[in-house]
Amino acid sequence: MTNESEIRALIENWATAVHAGDLDGVLAEHSEDIVMFDVPPPHEGVRGLAAYRETWPPFFVWQAEGATFTILELDVTAGDDVAFAWALLHCGTPADPPGHHLRLTLGLRKVRGRWTVTHEHHSFASVDPAPVESER
């Protein structure tokens, strides 16, 4: 397997675990010192695997009410020991407008021969109208 294909499989397995509400699967291959910036607060992000773990149960509750978490597009760039990936995901309910996609960026390091997620960033594009020139 190439580095890119290993990372692609890691991310796809992670997304499957998220969709299934499998916390152990979500945490797998994440570093103890992970930093994650997420859509909901805290806006300064969470640091460490224990704090990362605590962000998921409320998401699983929301998802169990009918939301989805599906990779639509995934791109991986990998060197020998560091890599990054970005993805667009459908993360929402059927009532969400078309094109309302979650943006995901991951930073990874190869540690003892295994790819490990060290940084994770989730975001949605702002739906607020852009200010008109006179408001800037």
Automatic annotation (TrEMBL):
Indicate the segments forming the SnoaL-like domain, all copies: 7-125
Which InterPro entries does this UniProt record tie to the protein?
Answer: NTF2-like_dom_sf, SnoaL-like
Lineage: superkingdom: Bacteria
Protein name from the UniProt record: Nuclear transport factor 2 family protein
The source organism is: Amycolatopsis rhabdoformis
